[in-house]
Input
Amino acid sequence: MSDLPDTTTTSAAAARKSSRSSLPARAFSFMASFGVGVVVLSFLLLLTWLGTVSQVDTSLYDVQKKYFDSWIFIEDVGSLKIPLPGAFLLMSILFVNMVCGGIIRIRKNWRNFGVVISHCSILVILAAGAISFYYKREGNLKLHEGETGSLFTSYHDRVIEISEVGPNGPVLMIHENQFSDLDTPGATRAFHATSLPFEITLSNYAKNTFAESAAMRPPPAGQPVIDGFYLRPEKAAMSAEANLAGVLATVKSTDGAEKQLLLWEVATAPVTYRTADGRVFTLRFKRQTWELPFTVTLTQFTHEKHPGTMRPKVFSSDVVKRDNGVDQPIKIEMNKPLRHQGYTLFQASYNDQWTAARPRSEMYSVFAVVKNPSDQWPVWGTIMAAVGMTLHFCMKLAEAISRSSRKRAAAASAPTAA
Amino acid sequence: MKHWKRLLPVLAVILVMFGISLGEILSNTGKLAISTEYKLPSWPRETVERFARMPVQEDGRIKPVETMAAYKLLRFHGTRTLRLKYADDSRRTLKPTEWLMDVLFYPEKARHYPLFVVDDPSAVSLAGITPHDSRRQRYSFAEVEPAMPKLRELYTEFSKIKENERQPQQSMIINLAQNAADFQTMLGTLDWARQGIQPGGGTPPPLVAAVMKDGRLPLSAFASVLRQSGGSLSFDDVPQTVRDLAVRSQWFVPYPHPDREKKEWMSLGHMIIAGLIAPAMQEMAVKGLGEWESLAAQRDDRPAFATTLNQLASQNEAAATTRGQEWRVPWEIFYNRADFFYYTLQIFTFAFLFQAISWLVAPGSRGSRLLHGGTWLAMTVGLILLVAGMVIRSVIMGRWITSVVTNLYETILFITAFVVILGLVAEWITRKKLALPVTAGLAAVGMFLAMKHDSGKATDTLEPLQAVLNTNFWLSIHVTTINIGYAAGLLAAGFAAVYLIARLFDPARKDAEFYKTLVGCTYGLVCFGLLFSLVGTILGGLWANDSWGRFWGWDPKENGALMIVLGNLVILHARLGGYIKEFGLALLTLLNGAIVAFSWWHVNLLGVGLHSYGFTSGVKEVVFIFYYVVLGVSALGIVAWLRDRWYREEKAAGSLPPVCLVQIPTASLVRPADIKIASRNRDAVSLPAMSDLTGDESVVREAVEKIPGNPQVGLAKLGLEFTKGTDSAEQKK
Output
C-alpha cells in the first residue's frame, strides 16, 4: 500500500508565496486551494444526506427544489433556521475550484496525467448536469394499442394558455414559475401582452388544490368564490406529479371592467372570456406539452409476470416510428429505449388494470419522453473518469509495491552485510 | 509477546463473537418434551431423498422440494433443523424435507411439534397463549390454535401500524399470526386425499356409489367417473367443500403444465379443479390425484409409499425435463448440501484465530510461519468456496456468472468476497501480517451477517428479477462495481478502526511500522474505493438513463453512492491539502464506513425511492449498532489523540521553553524525552526505550538512528540536523 507523502511543506510554501502575490493571484490561489475543495465537498456531502433523509416526508420534487436546485436554502433544526449553500452554489464553486486547482495549477507531468483526466471527467459531468437542468425537456406520452401520438406532456411544468377562439390559436403562455410565488394572501401579479385586449392579474396560487363547491362546503373567510366554486388548498402530495395546481385570474378589459376566473388544471373544459367587442378567449391551466418531430404508434403492449407471482418480469411496447413517411417497427422495453432525433422514449409504465372484463382498447402504455442535449455526455465522462483514476491509482500502487519490495530487499541484505 | 496488550481488543472481539454464537446455540436447545403419543419412526433415507429432489414451482421459479421446505421451516422455527425431545427422553432430529413429509402425511402429529419461534414470552401472552418459562421458545400449533381468533384480531390491529413504528411484541404477534395461518393451510394440504368428500343430495348415482369408500368419494374417483361419463362440471357447479380443499393445497405446485406454452405449473389445488371441470386434463388429474391419495393411504407402509412416490416424482421430473426446467434442480440440491457459506464462515473464523495465535508465538519462529501460512490457506480456501457458492447461484438462476449480485443478501456475499480479495492483496503487498487478521475478522462478520440475514428474512434468497433489473449487462458492470466500492470502504474502515483502537492502547507508538502499514492500507483502499464508487455511481446513472430516462434523479440509493464518493474525495483532498494526517485519515475513513452502511442498508429503511428491491425489515437495529460502534471507536480515537496531545504539551510546558527544540552539546545529557518534546506540533517520533545518554556526537547520533524508519526523515521532522565537526544540533526553521 502507499506511503504518505508529506504535503504540509508545499502547502505552507504556497501559502507564503500567495501572501506576497497580487489580489487576482491570491483570489486564484484561494479558488484553486484544497481547502475550498474540501469545504465544498463536505457541504455537498451534508446536502446529499439532508436531501436523502428529507424524502421520507417530502416529495422528491420538493426536495430537489430545496436542496439541489437552489443557490441557498434555510434548514430548520429545531427552532433554529440555518442558512446553507444549495447544490447550485456548491457545484459552481466546485467547478471553478477544479478548473483552477485541478486543471490549471496542477503540475503538468506524467504523474498527474490521470488526475487531470479525472478532473476533466467530473467537469464534463457537471457541465452535462447544468445543460440538462436548463435545456432538458421531459414528459410522458400515453398511447392505447393502435393509437398514434406525438404530443408529450410535462410531469411538472404548467402553463396558463390563453387562446382566441378562431384560427389564431394560443396568443399568450404564462409559465407557472412566473406566478408560483403568489401563494400568500394578497399577493398578485399582472400580465399583459399587445396581442391581448385585456390585462390578466393572477393571485391565490395553490400548488395542490381542489375546486370545491361553496354550496357543499362553505369556504373559509376571505376565500374568493367564483361561479359557486373556490380553491381549497390541500397538503402537497408525496409524489409531486399528483399535485393539482390552481390559481385565480382577474381579467380587466380596456374599459376597466373586471371579471374573476378560477383556473384549475383538472378542469374538463377551458374557461372562456368574451370581450366587449365580442372576441372570445379561452384560458386553460394545464401541464405543458411539446410536439415530437415524428409520430409513434403503439401496436402491442406485452406484460409478463414471473409465474405464480405478481412480480413483473418483462413489460415492453411494440411501436412503429414514422418519420418523413418512413415506418420503422421498434420494441421499447425496460433498459432498451428508443432514441431518435435527440429524443429518447423509455418504457415508463402501463395501465395495470388489464382484466378480461375490460376491453383491450382501454389498455395503454406510457412512455417517458426526454430531450436532453447532454444525454450521452456522462458516458464520455465515465470513460474519462475510469481511465484517469485507473491510470493514477495504478501508478501509485506500482510505486507502493516497488517501495515495499525495495525495503524487503534491503532488510534481507542487511544481516549479510553486517 | 512484546505487544500482547494490543491483542486485548482483538481477543475481546473474539470472545463477544463466540458469546453471541454460544447464545444462539443455547437458545435453540432446551426444548420442552413432547408426548410419546406424537412419536413417529424416521422416514427411510431414500424416500426422503426422492421427495427432497422433486421439482416444484414457487415464487416464480422451479426449485427442489428441499429448498421450499427449508425456507418454510426457517420462517416458522428460526432454524433449518427441528429437534424433537420426547417425554421418554428419546430424540428425533428432522431436516426440512422430513419435517414437511410429517406435516403432509402425519398432520395430527406434526401439529404438536414445537415449531413457532417467539422471542418474547409476553408477546404470546397478549394472544392468550400460556408462555413458556424462557425467552426464544417454540410453540406448537396445538398450543397456538385455540388463540387464532385473538391472533387474527391482533393482526388486524397491529397491521395498521407502520412497520418501522411497531413495537417488537407487535411484530412478533404479526409474524406468529401469519405463520400459524400458513401452517394451518399446510396441515390441511392433503385432507382431500385422506378424506375424499361426502356426496350430498341423497343416494349417489350408481357410477359414484361404485367408487365410494367408507361412504366417502375420493376426488380421483370423482374425476374418473366424470371422465367415464364423458362429462365435466362448470366451475360454479364445483361443490364449495371441494373448492375449500383445493384452496388448501394450492401452495404446493409440483406439476408442469401439460401445455408447454404455459409457464405456470399446476398446484394440487389446480389439479383437483381441473379433474372436475377440464375434460382435456381429466386423465392427468385422475392419475395425479390417485397417486397422492395412495401416498396418504400408504404412509405407514413405507416400501409401498416409496414406490408410489418414485413413480410420481419420475413423471414430474420427466415433464420438467421436456420443458428444459429440470436441470437446475440437481445444481440446487448440490448447492444446498454443500452449504458453502456456512463452511466459509467457519473457515474465516479459523483464519482469524490462526493469525491471532501466531502473534502469541515468537515472531519468525516455525510456529509463527506455519500459523501465518495457515491463515493464508484458510482465507484462500474460504474465498474459493464463497465465490463458488455465488457462481452456482447464478447458474441455478440462469444468469451470467458475472451477475452474482441481484438482491441485498447477495450484496453481503459479494462484498465479503471482495473484502477478502482486497485484504489478501494488501497483505501480499505489505507482508506485515496485519491485513490478514483485519480481513479475516471482517470476512467472518460478513458471513455471519449473511447467515443472520438469511435466517431473519427466511424466504428464498434465489429470487427472479424485477423487470428493471432483468439485464445481465448492467447487473454485471454497475452492481458489481458499486459493491466493490462498498467493500473497499468497509475494509478501509476496518483498518482505520484498528489504528484508532491501537492508538488508545499504545500511546508511545513504539512500533511505527505497525501504524504506517495500517495507514498505508487505509489510504490505498480509500483510493481504490473512490475509483470503484465513482465509476459505479456514474454507471448507475447511465443505467438509470436507459431505464427511467434520467441520468440522475436524487433517489436515496443514488444519493448514498454519491455520499461515499464525496466522503472519499473529502478524505483524499483533505490529506493532500495537509489538513489531516494519520489520525485524521483514520478517523474520517472510519466515519466513511458509516456512510457506506447508510448507502448499503439504511436508504432501504427509508422506504422511498426507486431502488426498493431489497428486504430491510429487522436490519434497522444492526445498522444502528454499526453506527454506534463507529461513533464509539471514533470517540475512543479522539480521546487517544487528545491524550497524546495533552501529554506532549504538558511535558513541553514543564521542561523546556516553548521555542527551544533541543540542544545537544558535547558530553551533555540527552534524553529520548527531549527529542520527543522537540517534536511537538509535528508528528510524534518515538525513540526506543533506553536509559539516559551521555556522550559525544557519535553517541547521540547512534541514539537518534534508533528512531524507527529513516533517521534522516526523523531528524528533518524535528527540524534538526547534525553538522559535521560541531557537537550541537540546530534548529533549521
